[in-house]
UniProtKB/TrEMBL annotation:
Organism: Proteus columbae
Listed Gene3D superfamilies: Spore Coat Polysaccharide Biosynthesis Protein SpsA, Chain A
GO MF annotation list: 2-C-methyl-D-erythritol 4-phosphate cytidylyltransferase activity
Homology family: Belongs to the IspD/TarI cytidylyltransferase family. IspD subfamily.
Pathway noted in the entry: Isoprenoid biosynthesis; isopentenyl diphosphate biosynthesis via DXP pathway; isopentenyl diphosphate from 1-deoxy-D-xylulose 5-phosphate: step 2/6
Annotated protein name in UniProt: 2-C-methyl-D-erythritol 4-phosphate cytidylyltransferase
Name of the gene: ispD
Keywords: Isoprene biosynthesis, Nucleotidyltransferase, Transferase
Pfam families referenced in this protein's UniProt entry, alphabetically: IspD
């Protein structure tokens, strides 16, 4: 198939059906507020800034009573689908919509609902990666990631005693967004799940199928809000972004 950079469609998928139990909050963590907006709103707004992302599919719980109260829920570029019990189920739901309603050439850019500090520069770098490599038959997609900085330890399975120090030179922290051809990603997730493989992110499904996604170095402040203390850190990083924009 003949694909040109200017016509290659990109649709974002946000799995947002989780309850975020580790946050110990009264609502799912993606609906906690930072600076007057929910975490999910910050996340979606970061993606909407890029003109190459034509639509955003948000996979929410069927029992979600929060999303449709948000102002951006009325945005025609945003579509909701029912998510599942696991991340992979929610991503699959989004991919099902993409493969049914968009071109077969569409790429899916999957981003965590609770990762609101994504910088435009990192997003743009990842999208340019597609444009620069799409004609390369070896290219299957890529993910944002940061090199491991700290000394890494492996513990014994039965307790927390150190078994060994792990060489960190080739280790990376996987981040999101992660971007792959939508149809190929859907097929690989379905195949991995059918074989009971452990799928912790989209790249792991591609790896299980034998592909080698590219690692794209991203900013370390692209954090995922998981623990209560992460909320203050995300607020700090977002405030720095706003200040930076105002000063440009």
């Amino acid at each position: 198939m003949n694909i040109t950079n200017s016509t290659l469609p990109i649709v974002a998928i946000i799995p947002a059906a989780g309850i975020g139990s580790r946050m110990q909050s009264v609502c799912p963590k993606q609906y906690l507020k930072i600076g007057g907006l929910t975490i999910l709103e910050h996340t979606i707004n970061a993606l909407l800034k890029h003109l190459r992302i034509t639509h955003i599919i948000v996979a929410i719980s069927p029992n979600d009573s929060y999303f449709h109260t948000l102002p951006l829920a009325q945005d025609e570029r945003i579509i909701t689908v029912n998510g599942g019990g696991e991340r992979a189920d929610s991503v699959l739901s989004g991919l099902e919509y993409v493969t049914q309603h968009f071109s077969e050439n569409t790429w899916a850019l999957v981003h965590d609902a609770a990762r609101p500090c994504l910088h435009f520069g990192d997003l743009d770098h990842l999208i340019k990666l597609i444009d620069e490599n799409v004609v390369n038959p070896q290219f299957c997609g890529g993910i944002l990631a940061t090199p491991v900085r700290d000394t890494m330890k492996r513990s014994h399975q039965q307790d927390n005693h150190i078994e060994q120090t792990v060489e960190r030179t080739t280790l990376w922290h996987a981040l999101t967004p992660q971007v792959f051809p939508a149809l190929l990603l859907k097929q690989n997730i379905e195949n991995a799940l059918s074989q009971k493989a452990t799928i912790t992110d989209e790249a792991s499904a591609m790896e299980f199928a034998g592909y080698e996604p590219l690692l794209v170095k991203g900013r370390a402040d692209n954090i995922k809000v998981t623990q209560p203390e992460d909320l203050a850190l995300a607020e700090f990083f977002l405030s720095r972004q706003i200040t930076s924009i105002r000063n440009t």
